[in-house]
Amino acid sequence: MAWLGRAVQAHAGRRVVPVAAQAVRQQRLNGAVVLSNGSTQSRSLRTPGRRWTSQTANRNTNPETALSEFLPRDMYHYDVKPETVASEVEEVATASGERLASAAIMTPETSYGYREGKHKSFSYDGDFQCEIKNSPRGGVLQGFTLAYETWGELNADKTNTILLHTGLSASSHAKSTPEDPSPGWWEEFIGPGKALNTDHYFVVCANVLGGCFGSTGPSSFVPGKEVERTRYALSFPLITISDIVQTQFKLLDHLGIQQLHASVGSSMGGMQSLAAAAMYPDRVNRVVSISGGLQAHPTAIALRYMQRRVLMSDPLWNEGNYYDGPLPSVGLKHARQIATISYRSGPEWEERFGRRRSSSERGEPSSFRPEYLIESYIDYQGSKWVGQYDPNSLLYISKAMDMFDMSAGHLSLGHSVAKIQCPALVVGATSDILFPITQQRQIVDLLRTANNPAVSYYELNSIYGHDTFLIDVAGVSTALRGFLM
Questions:
Q1: Pairing between strand 40-42 and 196-197?
Q2: Known catalytic membership, residue 466
Q3: What is the Cα–Cα distance from 133 to 423, expressed in whole angstroms?
Q4: Mean pLDDT computed over 416-439
Q5: Residues 287-292, mean pLDDT to the nearest whole number
Q6: How sure is the predictor about 101, in pLDDT bands with cuts at 50, 70 and 90?
Q7: What is the dihedral sign for C-alpha 155, 193, 270, 470?
Q8: 223-241 average pLDDT score
Q9: Which of 432, 462, 467, 472 is catalytic?
Q10: Which of 10, 54, 287, 356 shows the smallest number of beta carbons within 10 Å?
Q11: Is the pLDDT of residue 468 over 50?
């Protein structure tokens, strides 16, 4: 890619800071998970603010039922609020949720969703040329909007900003705010005295271009077509990680921020963080990649491809034009089920579920409905996502992840990485299958080969797979605190 530019003269010297991961210890205590640092996390698998009820409608006579009571009360102005959902999704989700509750599954849970709140908006009024020109509308957006939130105070010379990049399906709500007191998706990592210490840093987080939580995406109205309520759908241009990063730096320009204390990201956010350090080497003073990568791994590409194919095979997807009709809920549910499997790990499944059956199924003849607790869990995770996320956003952003390759336009991956000469922190989880530990070691090796003078690496021995960056507060925070000081 042209945005990486040519390699920069490397400097000598290395610094490595290995740290052993802190083991997570689970105990049953008033329905909570007790971590090794003594803090607790709720074990509830039900999304707060959502109520699940059983429906007994006959599929042959009433194939759909109202979804309104299952929608979050506010979705950052995500104005695509599906009116219907296939009854089979609701019925199976209800049964699976009841099975999990009765089994008292004890584990930390993750959530990108939010229930209510407010965000700030930045609107760019000029034409924005996306990297891929051979796509709808010539790859040109007639302006765009980014939803964003901030924490902490910007210092006088505007040099204490941390730009926090999100994963695929996250909103800008990484941390609770006075305007939105609901917990954010990185709640325990941001705040006074925490890893991203708001006593010292000004943290900025934006919903990515292509998203559906206030930023411009396929569910947005086409400029000039608001009265007709014409949405982009698949006429939205293809986007890349480079496009996403460029829009975020236009937000920083709007805020008058020319220097970042650090660019920090996990998962797809790690991709963005590394790209930002290469695209804007004069503006990024530190870079953090947690379970990220310099290019998409073949296994991850295959898994995301299957998610897209499953979603698009739902007849209600209707070539992306479902906004005025039923949501492709079955396809979205199954896509999320595939994703859930990839987010966690086999060792966790074995420890957490084993081959246990739900109490309601014990002694009953085997059937094709969810019988084992692992089946109920996967089914529940898929079902509860319906109505929380725009299916077309999943298509666009997951494809951007697959296309990401920092070696494009260069002789090798190493040549592209040589652009990153600021201090770098790389964190990986040994049980991660989406961004395997080999990719994390590759980033470190290439940075060191390019003579980056300050490369730190932490390897976390967690059983939580890719979701370690959301769950292992102690391990990830330890790495971040020392590096950001």
A1: unpaired
A2: yes
A3: 34
A4: 96
A5: 97
A6: low
A7: negative
A8: 94
A9: 432
A10: 54
A11: yes
Integer Cα distance of 426 and 458 in angstroms? 6
Strand segments, DSSP code E, in 101-201 are 120-129, 140-151, 161-165, 190-191, 196-197
What per-residue confidence (pLDDT) applies to 192? 97
d(CA 269, CA 275): 10
Return phi, psi of residue 465, to 5°. Answer: 60, -145
Which segment of 98-112, 114-128, 337-351, 435-449 scores lowest on mean pLDDT?
98-112
Residue appearing with tokens 């797809």 = 268
Active-site annotation holds for 432 = yes
Task: Say which of 173, 242, 466, 472 is annotated catalytic.
Answer: 466
Burial of 318 (0-12, 13-18, 19+ CB in 10 A): middle
Candidate from 74-88, 139-153, 311-325 with smallest mean pLDDT: 74-88
DSSP track, 183-246: PPTTGGGEETTSSEETTT-EEEEEPPTT-SSSS--TTSBPTT-TTTT-B-GGGSPP--HHHHHH
Q: Is 275:408 a contact under the CB 8 Å cutoff? A: no
Active site residue 11: no
pLDDT confidence tier of residue 387, bands split at 50, 70 and 90: confident
- Of 176, 267, 398, 431, catalytic: 267
